[in-house]
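We modelled the chain as a single entity of 178 amino acids. Its sequence is:
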Amino acid sequence: MTTALSDSGLQLASGNIIDLKAAMPTTGTYTAGDIVLESTTGAKVSGWKRLTTGSAHVLGTDWVYFAGTALVQANQTPLPGVATLLSYTHGLGAVPVSAELELVCLTAEFGYAVGDVVIPGISPAASLIMPFSVAKNATTVFARTGANIAFQIAHGTTGANSSPTSANWAWRFKVRAA
């Protein structure tokens, strides 16, 4: 993809402009499909997408506002042991709509290939895997590993309870804002 940088933003090969502004544009000519990212929202991805080509600037007619984010923490290795607090400072400034703890396969194990993402659980009984309780507030998401077994996953091909080998997996939080 070819891009060009100008005073009006980053122009993509498609001809559309991506710009950064504190508010919806009120002057200038834009093409349908142009994107203006909001510069005042911190970690949240938000802004305006152009619906029409021209120089009018009416929200809902010429521009549509979009907002939301899915922040994914960098993979953390190795997997921690039992009764360990896992936390991630997300920086959203508000309580996330959702937060998940994920395991990422680094070395093939239990029917999973490298790069597969699995939602782990804890196992209070041999035939039961319960999801992690992930707590969240305006600054942090956190969870605690099991008291006796840190993580459990269902085997990728048999469904049997499996305890991931620490060096073969990484953990991370995925957080979504409104």
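As a brief sanity check on the tokenised model: The chain has no helices and 16 strands. The chain has two domains: 3-68, 73-177.
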